[in-house]
Design brief:
There is one protein chain. The protein is 44% helix and 18% strand. The chain has 9 helices and 6 strands; from the N terminus they run αααααββααββαββα. Strand 5 (155-156) and strand 6 form a beta hairpin.
């Protein structure tokens, strides 16, 4: 919105960069915060030369072999609570070493597990160090992700939030699972 106010015009690199951010943040326009205004801005960026199909493919659809190997390990550790209302997976330093992956190769898996039928809360618990665990939280409309994250000093948006817990992975997962369960609406607990 600020580009026209600054008197700038879109060129292909600027339009591509802006549309890439929108596509990634909205997870391909599927997020609940995607509005008509978002789509109109995206249309303007496509009209300015940004390639939506290429951005979608490069940002969301293509995964490297290393990423797929890491996701395979993480999916082997997937868990659920409360009849699948809460789904979660873990990322350990051991998994990174086994696959040669990096932390950012796990990006996107929390959105993937959030597609589980009946899931209201999806969690990715990343082991950052021996006493540090980073939590990514995605929620359905009935749950505020920031309510869970703020219990541990984190924040974000109502559907996407995160926090860092200064505890080992096994302790942190128990803490965040309890908080997640406490934030489910009473009719789905």
């Amino acid at each position: 919105r600020i580009v026209p106010e600054l008197g700038l015009t879109y060129d292909i690199p600027l339009a591509t960069a802006l549309l890439t951010g929108i596509v990634r943040d909205s997870h391909g326009f599927s997020g609940s915060a995607t509005s008509g205004a978002t789509l109109r801005i995206a249309a303007d960026l496509v009209d300015a030369g940004a390639s939506l199909s290429r951005i979608h493919r490069d940002s969301l659809a293509h995964l490297s072999w290393t990423t797929m190997a890491l996701w395979g390990r993480m999916l082997q550790r997937i868990g659920q609570r409360l009849d699948g209302r809460v789904v979660y997976t873990l990322l350990t330093e051991e998994m990174l070493g086994e696959t040669g992956a990096r932390q950012d190769d796990a990006d996107g898996i929390v959105e993937f597990i959030a597609t589980a039928r009946d899931a209201s809360i999806a969690l990715l618990c990343r082991e950052i160090g021996p006493r540090e665990t980073r939590i990514s939280i995605r929620t359905a409309d009935s749950v505020d992700a920031t309510a869970i994250a703020s219990a541990f000093g984190g924040g974000g948006h109502s559907r996407r939030a995160g926090c860092t817990i200064q505890e080992p992975l096994d302790v942190a997962i128990d803490l965040v699972l309890r908080e997640a369960a406490a934030n489910l609406p009473a009719d789905v607990r």
